[in-house]
Every structure is written in C-alpha cells, then in structure tokens.
Fold:
Amino acid sequence: MSEIAEEDVTNFIVSLQRRSSSLVTPFLELPMPWFGLDIGGTLTKLVYFEPTDGNDYFESEEERISGRMIQRYLTANKAYGDSGIRDEHLELNNVTVDEREGTIHFIRFPTEHMPIFISLVKEKGFTLMSSTVCATGGGAVKYAKDAEMELRMQLHKSDELESLIKGIEYVAASNSDECYYYEDPLDDEKCRKVTWRWSKGCCASKHIDHSLQSQDGLQYPYIVVNIGSGVSVMAVHDQNDFKRISGSSIGGGFFQGLCCLLCGCESFDEAIILASKGNNKNVDKLVKDIYGKGYDNVGLPEDTVAASFGKLSNREECEKATRADLAHSALVTTTNNIGSVALNAANHCGIDRIVFVGNFLRVNPIAARLLSNAMDFWSRGTKKALFLQHEGYFGSVGCLEELVAVTEMRRKQREDSLSQSSNSSSSPM
Structure:
C-alpha cells in the first residue's frame, strides 16, 4: 500500500469537518467503512469489513484517502493503545457482505476504556464519512449520547439477541470449521478438538451457496448459551424464530469477581491463568469426602463436587488452599452451574443440540473443557457441549449485517419519497 501524504490527510479532515454542519447526519447509502459494534458489560467487540474485490467503492478523493487511512491503521496493527487487540487468527477471508467480497477483522478492548476509544476514533477521523454505526449491548444505550456529541454520529441500537443469532448463523455459514466439541475433555493426554459441521439448513445469509453446505452438524432447533458477564439461554427454531428461555447471574462476572475478592486478581485473563494452575479438589467438598466413596445409587461418582468451597469451613483445610485452588474452584463452580442451567433448558424444550458462545470462553479452554465434562455428566452422556471459534464476536457481526439492512430500508424510504414527490408534481391541478 502506497503512503498517503500528511498534507492530503490534513486537507481531507479539514474539508470533511467543514462539511459536517449538523450534529448527526442521517445516511441513505452505505459508505465505507463498515463497522459492527457490541458494547458489553466487560468487553467491547468491534468488527471491520475490508473489501478486497478490487472494485472502486470510493465516490471522491476524500473518501479514497479516508478509506486508505482507516484500512492502513486497522490492518497494520495488532494492538491499539494499551488495551485494544486485533485477533488476527480469527479474521474471515473471502466472505461476502452486501454483495462485496472482503475480509472481516475482529477487534476487542475493555468497555471501561470506551472514552479512550471515542477519543481515538475522533482523532483519526474515522466517523467523518459515516454518520451511523449499528451497535448492540448495554453500552449502545449507555454511550449513545457521548457518540452523538463527540463523534457527530448515531449509534443505531440493534436488538441484542437478534444480533447474536444473525452473527452466529452468518459466521457459521461462512466458516465450515467454526463449530467443534471436545473428546475426553478432562484427560490432558487424550483431549482433542473435533470439528462439528454446520448444516446447510442453518445458513441465514442469502449470499451463501447452500448447495455447498454439508447436511450433518448443528441443525434446527438448537440451544445457544451466551456467557458474558451473566448468562442468557436462547432456543432457536429458525433464523427468525428464537427467544430467551432462561439465564443465570453466575457467569463470567461472577467468576472474575470471586477471583478479584479471594485471589487478588486484577483481570479476567489473570484469573484464568491462575485457575489453570490450581486444583478445586483442595477447596470443594466431594462426594467421597461425605460417603467415603461414590454414591452409586443415584449415579454420583466419588469425584463429583457435592459442595463448592465446602472444605473452607474447616480451618486446617482452609489454610492449605492456595490462590490457584480458589480460582480453579470458582471456575468449576461457574461452569457446573452454567452446564446445569443449559441442560435444564434443553430438556424443557426437547432440544438436543447445545452451543456455548461468549467472551467467557475467550482464551479459556479450561472452562470449555469443564463445560464439556459438566454437560456429559448432567446429561449422562446423551448430549455434547458445542463451541464456536469466534466465541464473543457474534453480536458485532450481527450488527454489521444490520447496517446493510438499515441502509436498504432507508434507501427504499428515499426512493418511495422521491416517487411520491414526482407523482405529486406531475398531477394536474
């Protein structure tokens, strides 16, 4: 990519700022760049679509300079500031959005740094061409005023569950290796990931060739367990037929909060690393601690957790427990609860396929393996826990698709308005 002269950049920003006469200018076409934003309680997820089909999508020299500035900044870096990260290993190549072929990039940063993100966006002039970004999550409401005031743009609020399902089905239809499960999840030597093919019946995007999709895999209906700060459970019967049926407050926020309180952890990543080094059996009271063996009459093996943190009531046991043991117990407690809630919801709806998503699973294979074991235990081996490679990014991908839909709607409204105006002016007096 050739360099852009500093003078061109300065003139471009000054020119666009001069043209920005109103606080929020409604957009009718779909200008570049295309972003989708999911502002969660803990983590913000941003996706950026970069066209690679070679077609000239700029209508002016100003747009060309802007597009190249944004493309160079976002794709040349893997980190932005102190906390922004681009997950390069997750990028999706040769995908189609609104009949354009390109690459989707995945970026994340802590939601508490949203003010810093807004300042960066303003400094780089990223929103001077586009007046609207589709966003979901609680932060889409919380930070809406700041976006309008500071960036002269509107956050179009997308329904959180709808964005999630749209994103899951689009990504799964675009990436044949998206879905997987664990075999022998608690055996460090035998444990392995196994790809689980998504069925062609689940392709939500009109741009995906359904004939290329295999028949096996995650077909309708299925259960989605979204694990973020809390937990939401959805039953999906069709791409437009889904509802939230259950949930729990014991999710990623619960785990991180316990680790901060009990272990002095300052971040989620630190808590996960610490948990991977511990042994919950030094903290949790097991069935064998009560019965001296397994409770065979009700199918409880001796290593089953009977009481989370149950050994800490004994001072001697409490003094022996390490920080890592406490963190591991907090993780086992969280995953066991999530597995139980998920299975109860699936049994209530008569659905066998259960897929787990959300940022709780990011850089967290130990939690995924524990969930796999919990699902196998609670279902007596009749159900598998299924996982997706892009974990917590589905809401933001759904917003990218929503941006296309909103633009089409506004374009149609404009065409209808022009048509009515033309008919009115041509009518005889």
Notes: The CA atoms of residues 258 and 330 lie 7 Å apart. The longest strand covers residues 100-110. The chain has a mean pLDDT of 80.
